[in-house]
């Protein structure tokens, strides 16, 4: 739409400013074509330029209507009324079609719902008598039914739900146009601040649409503006604080918790900070847990019944498991699943496989990994978690051995007990591990996890890590252009490193607390590079300055000698001292780093 | 000034070791038709000295007036421009550079920079177009690609410039380059030759040298003339009226490595491996090349090991040395060796205990 509008705008601008005659007709047709779609703001501009252009007169009336609409809209900007929950059958998404309409239908834990409901009831009844904080903070993962709960409770209590809707984003072309007309860009944060200010001053103005209904109002803030820096966070915090302190309407603010694996992101940390500040301002907090397996199953099977799809309990079970407590996801998966008959066949065809493997304790894992390709949320692991898995090297105890032995014969010294985790490659994938850092980390830390006597293990591990390094090094040269090759090599190297560590460490230490160190190698490399640069600078000191000498020669022959001599030439000594200082500072740094890392990334026994 | 520099022969006639090579080179240069040259041989054998003398022979004393320049080169590589910083040492007639300093961008150096240098060649007094001499050091450290483009550059600009390549081992220089150059192998001087040189320096310095002392230095020097002269000077500083049994100070990193070796022999456990790793890091920080570390370590270990183990240890050291060159991070491979060695030492110890 934006594109089209700009086109129109350009032509009308030209029309107004320059040409009156020649291209009038064509613009006219264009304009008349696009009038129904025109944006009110744009038409305002057109109206301004109206007198000069006879064309725009034609749709002046139209403008007025639109302008009226715009004013009307502006009144309700940011505050959309959601008129009940008329469930239209036409909606195709099951998520929408089977939106919970009553408290009973909610899959959320009953106690939690009751808690929230009580809170709202209290606020709605006694909002005038006493001063109490009117803000409820609801946290939880995505898809645990936070908004749905509020919606249902609102309709249950007969309250009107006012929702803060983020204004639609402005695209660049629109912005360019707007700025030329003098309309300033307002960020989402600006709008939100403005909204909060209005709310706190005037309260919620009951919607003009249904004036007759004298119902109570619940305000729902679902989508907080995204903040990317400190200043923006501060502003958001202030406006939220204002909201908490001043609002008379029961307000629910929803926070979506992201997985802990993503917590390196600033945004999540900011969100946590916001929650804390809200709580300290007096807001109540209710945390929603992921929806339980059983209630997801119940909901899914109900939907199946209503849709008259034949889905076996086992399949529902799988879907529920794969969704990880996210009911929205589960329902979408179910719809997708029922939508594709071929998929169902493949599922039922492959169904016998897991049943055969029933003896295996990790049957679910196998089944899971098979189907999560189609639906289900991919879980992420943090790098340290994954490293911990590899280093601790937990394995099954004896009993599971027999199964493997049937398949093919492995020499006794080479066979290992089955792993107590997913395939290492899968773990790597979940941790988004890159081969190089993984190999470095393993190299740095693996010795700490070996028992005291196991020097031959250490050798095996070292040689496997060497293999991995070899694989990683090859792509540096000739293959660098081919991404494919590089990727294959990378993952192969990671796999070799990880599996080498898992295989080689056949006598791991009993599980316990270990700190994972950051590879010292990185620092060593850096400082050796720096030293090398120093040496390169000095390479013209020898040979009477008429030739240059090899770095190797300087490092191995001249420097020790000069050090030994305490050589008279001041230049030589100084650089040497400089080098040593560099080395010392590096050592100091590394120690600090190590300590901080120890405190940060404590690897406990998983 | 260090003695190594002070007594370095300046002309091909003054050379003390490799006199035959020097005479041949002189003949070659004076007959005007000088091919590309590739000098190779172990460190401390006098390659650089010979190269400098050859250049002086070609251009006279003006070749000694050199200036060090640090230039940034802009190289057009496809769609982008790459800035490469490189230090060169140049006189009017020759340029010396270390292309391997540019790391993985060495390819552009040998392609573009040499091309550029070859373009503006000097004109000699008779108005005849002369040629420039390009001295490339550490050719064996060039990447494959760089060596390949060097080959092409050599062919294209052979009329305008002569290349003098210098490296330790010709085995890492591609066949194509080797066949386009006159290969000059510079052997390590024999101990006798080293003794002669040391006596010569001693006489010039007016020192009284007890008999057998220079022989001891020569023996310790591992047949590296530079090293011999350097340690000769150290001894001079340490204690002048030389005594024939005066100790010859070893290099600090060598001592360090022998310490590591005894660590390895003392106890074999992952903990100890970690300590050894820290020591190895220390060496690497000081830019001791990993190949040398590995070689020295093997040497020290061989001194301590039983005869039956020696073969195996050598085998694995060679294996890991090769892989280290292919690989990226030397420490992984050194460690492979170290742990392997430890393992075998342990096995040996166990066997002994069993018997």
From TrEMBL, chain A:
Pfam families: Rad17. Residues 574-606 are annotated as: Disordered. Keywords: ATP-binding, Cell cycle, DNA damage, Nucleotide-binding, Nucleus. It comes from the Eukaryota. InterPro entries: Checkpoint_prot_Rad17_Rad24, P-loop_NTPase, RFC_lid. It is found in: Nucleus. Residues 590-606 have a biased composition (Acidic residues). Residues 574-584 have a biased composition (Basic and acidic residues). Coiled coil: none annotated. This is Cell cycle checkpoint protein RAD17. It comes from Rhamnella rubrinervis. The lineage of its organism: Eukaryota, Viridiplantae, Streptophyta, Embryophyta, Tracheophyta.
UniProtKB/TrEMBL annotation, chain B:
It comes from the Eukaryota. Signal peptide: none annotated. Its main location: nucleus. Belongs to the activator 1 small subunits family. GO terms for biological process: DNA repair; DNA strand elongation involved in DNA replication. It comes from Rhamnella rubrinervis. This is AAA+ ATPase domain-containing protein. Residues 33-192 form the AAA+ ATPase domain. Pfam families: DNA_pol3_delta2, RCF1-5-like_lid, RFC_C. SUPFAM superfamilies: P-loop containing nucleoside triphosphate hydrolases, post-AAA+ oligomerization domain-like. InterPro entries: AAA+_ATPase, DNA_pol3_clamp-load_cplx_C, DNA_Rep/Repair_Clamp_Loader, P-loop_NTPase, RFC_lid. Heterotetramer of subunits RFC2, RFC3, RFC4 and RFC5 that can form a complex with RFC1. PANTHER family: REPLICATION FACTOR C / DNA POLYMERASE III GAMMA-TAU SUBUNIT, REPLICATION FACTOR C SUBUNIT 3. The keyword Nucleus applies. May be involved in DNA replication and thus regulate cell proliferation. One of its GO terms (molecular function) is DNA clamp loader activity. The keyword Hydrolase does not apply. One of its GO terms (cellular component) is DNA replication factor C complex.
């Amino acid at each position: 739409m934006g594109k089209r509008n700009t086109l129109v705008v350009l032509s009308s601008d030209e029309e107004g400013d320059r040409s009156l005659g020649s291209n009038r007709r064509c613009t006219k047709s264009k304009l008349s074509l696009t009038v129904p779609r025109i944006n009110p703001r744009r038409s305002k501009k057109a109206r301004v330029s109206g007198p000069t252009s006879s064309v725009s007169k034609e749709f002046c009336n139209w403008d007025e209507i639109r302008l009226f609409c715009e004013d009307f809209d502006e009144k309700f900007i940011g505050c959309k009324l959601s008129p009940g929950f008329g469930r239209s059958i036409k909606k195709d998404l099951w998520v929408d079609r089977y939106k919970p309409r009553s408290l009973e239908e909610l899959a959320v834990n009953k106690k939690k719902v009751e808690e929230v409901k009580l809170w709202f009831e209290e606020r709605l009844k006694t909002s005038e008598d006493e001063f109490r904080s009117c803000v409820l903070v609801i946290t939880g993962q995505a898809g645990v039914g936070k908004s749905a709960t509020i919606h249902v409770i609102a309709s249950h209590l007969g309250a009107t739900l006012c929702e803060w809707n983020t204004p639609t984003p402005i695209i660049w072309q629109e912005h360019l146009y707007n700025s030329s007309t003098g309309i300033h860009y307002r960020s989402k944060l600006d709008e939100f601040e403005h909204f909060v200010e209005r709310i706190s001053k005037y309260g919620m103005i009951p919607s003009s649409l249904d004036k007759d209904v004298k119902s109570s109002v619940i305000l729902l803030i679902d989508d907080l503006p995204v903040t990317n820096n400190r200043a923006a966070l501060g502003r958001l915090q202030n406006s939220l604080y204002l909201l908490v302190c001043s609002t008379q309407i029961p307000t629910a603010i929803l926070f979506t918790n992201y997985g802990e694996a993503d917590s390196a992101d600033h945004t999540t940390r900011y969100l946590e900070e916001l929650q804390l500040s809200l709580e300290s301002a007096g807001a109540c907090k209710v945390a929603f847990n992921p929806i339980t397996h059983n209630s997801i199953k119940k909901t899914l099977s109900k939907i199946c019944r209503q849709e008259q799809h034949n889905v076996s309990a086992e399949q529902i079970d799988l879907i529920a498991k794969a969704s990880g407590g996210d009911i929205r996801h589960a329902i979408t998966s179910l719809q997708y699943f029922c939508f594709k008959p071929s998929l169902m066949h493949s599922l039922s065809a492959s169904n016998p496989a897991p049943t055969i493997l029933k003896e295996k304790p990790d049957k679910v894992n196998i089944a899971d990994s098979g189907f999560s390709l189609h639906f289900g949320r991919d879980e992420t692991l943090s790098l340290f978690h994954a490293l911990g898995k590899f280093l601790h090297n937990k394995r099954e105890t004896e009993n599971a051995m027999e199964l493997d032995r049937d398949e093919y014969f492995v020499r006794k010294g080479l066979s290992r007990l089955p792993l107590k985790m997913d395939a290492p490659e899968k773990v790597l994938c979940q941790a988004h591990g890159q081969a190089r850092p993984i190999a470095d980390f393993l190299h740095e830390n693996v010795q700490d996890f070996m028992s005291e006597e196991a020097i031959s293990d250490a050798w095996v591990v070292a040689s496997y890590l060497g293999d991995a390094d070899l694989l990683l090094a090859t792509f540096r040269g000739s293959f660098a252009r081919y991404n494919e090759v590089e990727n294959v090599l990378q993952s192969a190297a990671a796999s070799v490193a990880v599996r080498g560590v898992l295989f080689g460490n056949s006598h791991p230490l009993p599980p316990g607390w270990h700190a994972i160190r950051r590879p010292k190698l990185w620092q060593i490399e850096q400082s050796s590079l720096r030293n090398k640069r120093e040496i390169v600078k000095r390479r013209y000191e020898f040979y009477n300055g008429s030739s240059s000498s090899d770095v190797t020669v300087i490092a191995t022959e001249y420097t020790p000698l000069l050090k030994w001599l305490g050589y008279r030439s001041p230049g030589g000594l100084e650089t040497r001292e400089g080098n040593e200082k560099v080395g010392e500072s590096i050592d100091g740094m590394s120690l600090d780093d190590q300590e901080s890392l120890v405190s940060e990334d404590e690897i406990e026994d998983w | 000034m260090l003695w190594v520099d002070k007594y370095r022969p300046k002309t091909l006639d003054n050379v003390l070791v490799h006199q035959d090579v020097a005479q041949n080179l002189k003949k070659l240069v004076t007959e005007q038709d000088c091919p590309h040259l590739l000098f190779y041989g172990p460190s401390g054998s006098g390659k650089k000295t010979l190269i400098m003398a050859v250049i002086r022979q070609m251009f006279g004393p003006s070749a000694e007036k050199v200036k060090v320049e640090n230039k940034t080169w802009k190289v057009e590589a496809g769609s982008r421009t790459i800035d490469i910083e490189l230090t060169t040492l140049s006189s009017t007639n020759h340029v010396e550079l270390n292309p391997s300093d540019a790391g993985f961008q060495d390819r552009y150096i040998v392609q573009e920079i040499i091309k550029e240098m070859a373009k503006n060649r000097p004109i000699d007094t008779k108005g005849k177009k002369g040629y420039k001499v390009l001295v490339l050091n550490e050719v064996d450290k060039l990447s494959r690609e760089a060596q390949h483009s060097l080959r092409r550059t050599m062919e294209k600009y052979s009329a305008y410039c002569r290349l003098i390549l210098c490296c330790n081992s010709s085995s890492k220089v591609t066949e194509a380059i080797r066949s386009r150059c006159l290969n000059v192998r510079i052997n390590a001087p024999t101990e006798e030759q080293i003794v002669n040189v040391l006596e010569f320096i001693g006489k010039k310095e007016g020192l009284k040298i007890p008999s057998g002392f220079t022989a001891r230095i020569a023996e310790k020097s591992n047949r590296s003339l530079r090293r011999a002269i350097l340690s000769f000077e150290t001894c001079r500083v340490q204690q002048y009226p030389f005594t024939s049994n005066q100790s010859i100070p070893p290099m600090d990193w060598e001592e360090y490595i022998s310490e590591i070796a005894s660590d390895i022999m003392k106890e074999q456990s992952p903990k100890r491996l970690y300590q050894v790793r820290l020591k190895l890091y220390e060496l690497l920080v000081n830019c001791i090349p990993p190949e040398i570390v590995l070689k020295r370590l093997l040497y020290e270990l061989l001194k301590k090991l039983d005869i039956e183990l020696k073969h195996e240890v050598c085998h694995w050291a060679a294996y890991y040395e090769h892989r280290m060159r292919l690989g990226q991070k030397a420490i992984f491979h050194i460690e492979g060796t170290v742990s392997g060695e430890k393992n075998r030492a342990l096995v040996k110890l166990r066997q002994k205990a069993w018997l």
